[in-house]
Each structure stands twice: as C-alpha cells, then as structure tokens.
Amino acid sequence: MRYSLKQLTVFDAVADTGSVSLAATKLSLTQSATSMSLAQLEKMLGRPLFERQGKRMMLTHWGVWLRPKAKRLLQDAQQIEMGFYEQHLLSGEIRVVASQTPAEHLLPDLISNIDNDFPEMRISLDVKSTNSVLKGVLDYQYDLGVIEGRCDDSRLHQMVWCKDCLTIVASAHHPYALSDEVTLAQLEQAKWVLREKGSGTRKEFDSSINPLIDDLDVWREYEHVPVIRSMVANGPYITCLPYLDVKPMINSGQLVVLNVPQDLKIKRTLSFIWRADMAENPLAECIKREGLRMMKNVSNSVESLSPA
Questions:
Q1: 180: which DSSP letter?
Q2: How confident is the model over 52-61, as pLDDT tens digits?
C-alpha cells in the first residue's frame, strides 16, 4: 500500500477547504509540505484529484470517487487511535448539524444523556436552516444532520426520529383569538410573520397553504424563532411554528392556537440524515440509537404533542 494516512488527510483537507493554503493552516503544516503530500498521492494513484478553477481547487471525477473512501479510512483510523488511547470503543469527535427546532428542544437532552454514558465522545453542534443542513452533510462538512420534514435526495439516507406538528397562532388580544373557527378568507386577510424560505418549517407551511390561498400576505420573514414569537405575541400578526417553539407562550396565555381548517393542521417528522456513500459511523449510530431511546423513555414525547 503506497499511500499514507497523512496524504489522505491532506487530500481530505484540500477537498474540504478548496485551497492548499487553507488546508495547510487547518493541518498546521507548511504550504510546501501540503502541496508535496498531495502531489505524491496523485502520482502514486496515477490520476489527477483536483483541477484549479480560479482560486479554488475543485475535485475531478477521480477526486469525487475517492473522497467518501478516504473519509471512511480516516474515520476508522481515528476510531482505532482513540479507542486504544482512551480504552473506549465510542470515542472521538462527531460533527452534527441541526435545524432550529430539534437543536433547541431535543438535542440538548440527547447530548447530555450521551455525555453521561459515553464521556469520550465529543459532539460538535451547529444550528442552520434545513437547506443548509442538507448542503452541509452533502459537502462532508458534517457527519450527521437533523432536519425538519422530508429529504428526497437519493445521496442521503434518512431515519425518522420523532413526530412534530406545526401550529398557527396569534396573540391573545388578536381578533381571531376570539373566534371559534378561523376561515381561509380570514387567513388570507391576516398579516403573517413567517420563517425564512429554505427553513423546514416554511417548506411544510408553504406546501400546505399554497393550494388553498393564492395570495398570502407575508408581512415579514425572519430566521430566528424568538423574533417571530415576540412580534406575534405583541402585535397584529399570526404565524405558523412548531408546537415545541410556541408551547410555553401558549401555556402562559400570550399566544392562542387558532382553530383553522383541517388541511392546515400540519404534522411532520424530525429526522436524522447522513451521506449514503459513507461507511457506518459508530458515533453516529450511537446518537441515533440514544435519540430513539430518549423518545421512548419520555412519556410526553414529541410524538404525542398536540395543541389540543
């Protein structure tokens, strides 16, 4: 076997950063040493792995073929090293990315449970929109993602974690809060404050309401849920958010669930996603397994959530 783990590490870093100099910084190597390792790997394999496009190093089709296999080898090497060094089978770092709702309401408890049982696992967590989660996992920036709604990309595997529902709410002093039923005509006339396009919540909402209302008055769009909640609780707006995000303000009386037509009582799933071409990752498997166990052990789980 003529190539080394160091050369594969350099290849992986250049693929991640799109730059030899950035890869060198990431690996704490000189730029010349990084270039030399990459050149040696390409020479040994007899194929170009990158082509320069402007200032970026772009993978050739050979590089695209090699990338998941190199990731797999480096992941296994890390597991071997950490397992022997720490004497723990589940050790090392895993990069997780999640959309807002699971990141805020579910992952803190899950990570805490794993910290208690597997103290040598290091879980990094980023919070992004669903579109960015999908892109980050596809681009190898993350090992595991958690999204809201469906994923139809064949390059990704998906496993449903739990169920969720979206809820249309207004402030307690909004005129609609006093109605036994809110009609489609009333919803069309309302001022809406919604999540930004690209978020899982917005995708699910749009797919449900667009066949029913042609011209929705979307007054504002925001990325951050607390901004939306505050605007709706204190202004003449309505919104549609995950029940988990609005439950405390419903319980306190600041927000009221509107009785809307059945087609707008939206149920969805929260799911784990990972690349289909990646080998089984024991750390990711641990997170998925513990996530399912957590939902089974919580009597008032998201599966049973309902605004009713």
A1: S
A2: 888 889 999 9
